[in-house]
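Morning F.,

Quick status update on the modeling queue. The single chain you submitted on Monday has been processed. Sequence for confirmation:
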Amino acid sequence: MSLQKKVKRFFDFLLAIVAIFILTAPMIGIALIVKLTSKGPVIYWSDRVGRNNRIFRMPKFRTMRLKTPEIATEKLNDLDSYLILLCHISQQPVKGLLHVVFCNSSQ
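Structure tokens below.
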């Protein structure tokens, strides 16, 4: 392995460690809010299409109530009745960053 690859690997590892420390607290906070404001699991596993049309499962914070119909979010008649509290809070003042990041399409 060349020196350039070793340096890149070191910085990639260092950046990953820093990101873990920065993102751990907000992720724990969001998980607690989801758990305390709704029944069911905190994590929703979404099926996605990846490379070569292979399906893979991606974890997401759950933003919809349990037993929400599995259809596109925009096709739900009364979307607000399916959102958990975290999404209602983020929609109140302005459709802000919390809503865009956490409340678009997961169930």
